[in-house]
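Treating backbone geometry as a discrete language has practical consequences that deserve illustration. Part of our work consisted of pairing the sequence of a single chain with a tokenised description of its backbone. We regard such an encoding as a compact summary of how the chain folds. The amino acid sequence and the backbone structure tokens for this protein are reproduced below.
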Amino acid sequence: MKDEPPREKVQTLDELAAIVCRARAAGRRVVHVRGVFDLLNNGHIQRLEMARRQGDMLVVTLRSDARLGDDRPLLDERLRAEIVARLACVDHVAVEGALSPDEALAAVGADTCVDGVDGKVSSGPAVSDDGLPYSAEARAFLREFRRSCSADHVIERLRSLSGLRALVVGDTIIDEYHFVRPYGMPLKAPTIAAQFLEGEAHAGGILAVANHIAGFCREVHLVTALGARDTREAFVRRHLAKNVEPMLFVRPDGPTTVKRRYVRKFLVQKLFEVSFFNDEPLPRDLDLEISRHLQQVVGDYDLVIVADFGQGFVSHDMIEILCRQARFLALNAQLNSINMGYHVVTRYPRADYVCIDEDEARMACRDRYSPLPELVEAIAGDLKVRFMAVTRGHHGSITFQPGHGAWTVPVLSREVVDTVGAGDAYLAITAPCAAAGFAPELIGFIGNAVGALAVRILGNQQPVTPEMLFASVRELLR
């Protein structure tokens, strides 16, 4: 193998995965190193040689040019692969293509991954030379969590959710990203001048919640409303998962809600936002029509998820029906720039699972400074919840079960592209976990793993899929 010509060492990722699988089946220990490896230096070589001594085979995967975005290497991916392949210590090389770090690690399936640039080898979560390590708090949490919960156990529990029938109710939002290049401020006006580059639109709001849960529950029914003006119905239907059955009502007095963000493409820096919406209460006849539909179907589902964005869709009559008839009600009432100060979770009289962020919890209690666990317990008591989760951005999350206390789970993110939609992903995937009776600490772990994946996705460009989550769980709990 060591005398193999460099080009013959370069494989596709699928070919590499098959080689690794055969090697492991034959009892060989495979070590995996990943990185950019631009302008190969002595440090790279020493690291690879040390990694090779830890096993019987060394495979290397390189981040693709496309994944590096504007921060392109000096050498393209083909040249980088061929140069690494010339090293005697390297057995096989592949380019990762569009895969994320977690997906690349899972796809290769090696026994061991090099942990950090100093060449130490670990059977724990891998950290590449172009990624950031988990915090000390996260590493301590994961060490303790592994003692009571294996990756196989978590994945088995997640797979068991597939039989749940879910109803999702809430506001439709279309998230538009208009990428621009700012080039200065006009001489006669204090505004930002920018060149339009390109744009894209995502299915957000309750549509995103439906798409996230559709990967984990085979049957999903969606109830929402579009606007008669600029309805976007074709877009909505085209961007829903195949197993989401939509019931789309139309309000005659406004547009489908669109949030248009103008974004500097480099580092996804948001400049400003323009929204198109009518957040007034629904016309009475339409409210009655939707309420009658909910009354007929709510009892048929194991789980009802309400993502109430305060955009005028969820009425008092609907709330009364949902709270009275749902077998298991999971709830988020989102605080945002449109409804600030007018929209809190306590407008609902009950819920089985509440998932909100810290600002939403404090606003619901009208309390800025008290310890968060006290506020969580107060909200849980008011709504008679079975479980509650409060997300806290870079501080992680808290999960709570009445009579059993609170659990703190640190943030598990290593890379943040965009935080838009991360809370919706957390709600969508932890809600069936709560309905199935998962332990609060397991709900918190799964939620933070989901959040870590969601913040690496631009907006709601794609849902967090089971494959993505399973690969992340295996990495975290190795």
